[in-house]
Structures are given as C-alpha cells and as structure tokens.
Amino acid sequence: MGLIDRLLGVVFGGGRNVVAQTAEIFRVNAEAEAVRGATLRGAALRQFGQEFVQPKRGGFDRFMDGVNRLPRPALALGTLGLFCAAMVDPVWFAARMAGIALVPEPMWWLLGAIVSFYFGARHQAKG
C-alpha cells in the first residue's frame, strides 16, 4: 500500500495532476478556452459600447446637427417643388430657368465641387 500511495502521490500529489497537465500539451483545456473566449467577447462588447456613448452636448451643437441634416431633404423637396412649379405656372418657371441658363459654367463647376465634397465628406464620416 505504501508503494502505490507514493507512486500515486508522485503522479497526482502536490495539488497537481500530471496526467491532465500532459494532456493539455496535446489538447486545449476546454474550460480555460471558454473563459478566455468569454473575456475576449466581453472586452470587445465594452469597446463597441464605448463607441456609441454620446457626450453631453450644448444647444449650439444640437442646432448645428440639425442644420447639417437639412441639405439632402432640401435638395429633394426643392426638385419636387420645381416640377410642381413647372406644372402650375410654365411661364414663370421658364423665366427662372432662363435665368439659370445664364449662370457661367465655372460657377456650375464650383457648385458641383461644393456639393460633392459635402456629401463625400459626410459619406466618409458615416462610413
């Protein structure tokens, strides 16, 4: 009995398990792997959550956010308004379009650049 006790004490004694430690060399400890995975997922979720925390904003910041949301709806509604104006009063509409036809080409290029940069920068910021 003493020999078996000493032999088992060498293998399993001292608060360690030589068989389990040897097996972990060839196969991942599933429990430790699950703990590492849960810790990693928790850290990732905390990081993602911090990206969506909004700091306290003043009245001016909220006003400017509202102003920044206006151009796209204004362009869309303005275009629909032009179609309605053309149907309601074609002569008035033709006079306005004749005035737009007199705008020099470099000013159209400038307008196109400003609108493109505005929407391009907004796309980059949101993307």
Radius of gyration: 35 Å
Low-confidence stretches: none
What overall form do the CA principal axes indicate? rod-shaped
Structural class: mainly alpha
Number of helices: 7
> How many separate domains make up the residues?
2
Order of helices and strands: HHHHHHH
What summary fits the major beta sheet?
Answer: none
Describe the structure.
The protein has 127 residues and is mainly alpha-helical. It folds into two domains: 2-51, no CATH class; 74-126, no CATH class. The protein is 82% helix and 0% strand. It is rod-shaped and about 115 Å long. The N and C termini lie far apart (73 Å). The model has no long low-confidence stretch (mean pLDDT 84).
Relevant terms:
rod-shaped, 2 domains, 7 helices, about 130 residues, mainly alpha
Topology:
Blueprint: H1 2-12, H2 18-26, H3 30-51, H4 59-68, H5 71-88, H6 90-101, H7 105-126
Summarize the structure in short:
The protein has 127 residues and is an all-alpha fold. It is 82% helix and 0% strand.
